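Entry for the shared binder. Reason: the reviewer on the internal report wants the predicted structure included alongside the sequence.
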Amino acid sequence: MARTLRILVVDDDPAMVGAITALVGTEGHQVITAYDGLTAVRRYREERPDIVLLDLAMPGPDGFTVAGRIRAEGDAPIVVVSGESSEEAKVRALGIGADDYLVKPFGRAELLARIGAVMRRADRAAGTKATAGGDSAGRLAFGGLVIEPGRHEARVGDSRLELTPIEYRLLETLVRARGDLVPHLRLVRAGWPGEADPDLLWLKPHVARLRHKVDAAGGPSILALRGVGYRLEG
C-alpha cells in the first residue's frame, strides 16, 4: 500500500488480534482493536477507520450483524477474516455488505494483498464519486449510460430514461460502483433511504423493471450474482 491505513481489527481472540496487528504493522498501518460486536460498532463510529477486518464469531452481536451495522453507517471496506469456510457463510457475509472474505489461517502476503485490493477498489469508487463523469457538471457515465445527479436524470445516447425515484437511486448507485458488485443490502438502502429496515425482497421487481428500461435504450447490462448483489457490465 502506498499510504498508511487506520485498520479496525475485530476478533474475540487476543492472539489473533495480536498476530494481525504484527502483520499489518510491518507496513506501518495503525490498528484499532475490538473484541466484541458492541465495541466494534462503537469503535467504528468513534474512529472512522479506513478498513475493517472482521471475525464472524464473537460475544454480543455476531460478525454478520456488525457488518450490517457498519455498512449502514459508512463505506469503509469490510474484509471478513474467519475460520468458517462454508459457501453459505461467504455468500451471507458478502450479501450483508462485506467486500472480501479471508479464511483462517492465512499468511502475511495474502492478508496484505487482500487489504490492498479492497482499498484500491474503495479509492477508485471514491474518485468516481468526486469526478465520476469526468466533467465539471458532475455527470456520471458508464458504458454509454449518463447520469446527471443535479437534474435527477439518466439517458443512453439521446434517449432519456423514464425512471421512478427508486429506479433512479438504484441506477445511480450501480453507476457509481463502476462495474464493481453492489451487495443487496447496500443497494436496498440506497433505493429506500427513508426506511429503517428495508426488505431485500423489494429489490428484485424494481431491478427487473430498471433492467428492461436500460436494455431497451441500449445501455449497459445489469447483472445479478445470486444471493449477493448486482453490477453493471458495459
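Summary line for the report: Residues 170 and 191 are 5 Å apart (CA to CA).
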